[in-house]
Amino acid sequence: MVISESLSRFAEGWSEADYVGGHPVLDFVNTVADTGKTRLDDKIGRWDAMRGWARGAGLLTGQELASFLQDAALDDDGELARLHGFREQVYEAILGLAGQTDGASPTMAGLERSIRDAMGRGSFAGEGGRFRWRPDARSPRRWLDALALALEELLRSQDVSRLRQCSRCTWFFIDRGRGAGRRWCDMRTCGNRAKAEAFRCR
Ligand SMILES: [Zn+2]
């Protein structure tokens, strides 16, 4: 992809460095700015931030995104709170999958409910020669549904075995490299900070 094209799709406050997870759901879980293992510095505290994030995320088709943005009146504080809850639920579940906590089955059960609900409201539609579950753009729950359906897709894929967490922050990514493996969400941020710290400790 040409760089000028990829930059132009990012909304204010978001850049390529916010989309390093390798999957829209991981990029969504990575919408905290903490540089350590806390998750307090929220980057989607308002709807305009959430909508801006979605523009660069590849979660929705162009048509869906346009329709979501057009019907902004459907988005209220309750739905934004729901998105935050879902984000942290997915975080817990993926930590469990990465073997860092036990299976966390109550969390998984909650996510399964979200996925079932999203399928109940959504449609099974053809897109580029294959079929996918798509959210109902007219439902107030559409953002959550889009994320739940994307999560279902991720959890069924081979990528699950390549899920990793950054050694420094709480971000997740899919390690598609060979060899020793990727340790940082992004070499430009956590990787460089960790190297600088190691240097100071010597
Ligand atoms: Zn990191």
From TrEMBL:
<dbReference type="InterPro" id="IPR023286">
    <property type="entry name" value="ABATE_dom_sf"/>
</dbReference>
<dbReference type="InterPro" id="IPR010852">
    <property type="entry name" value="ABATE"/>
</dbReference>
<dbReference type="Pfam" id="PF11706">
    <property type="entry name" value="zf-CGNR"/>
</dbReference>
<dbReference type="Pfam" id="PF07336">
    <property type="entry name" value="ABATE"/>
</dbReference>
<protein>
    <recommendedName>
        <fullName>Zinc finger CGNR domain-containing protein</fullName>
    </recommendedName>
</protein>
<feature type="domain" description="Zinc finger CGNR">
    <location>
        <begin position="162"/>
        <end position="202"/>
    </location>
</feature>
<dbReference type="InterPro" id="IPR021005">
    <property type="entry name" value="Znf_CGNR"/>
</dbReference>
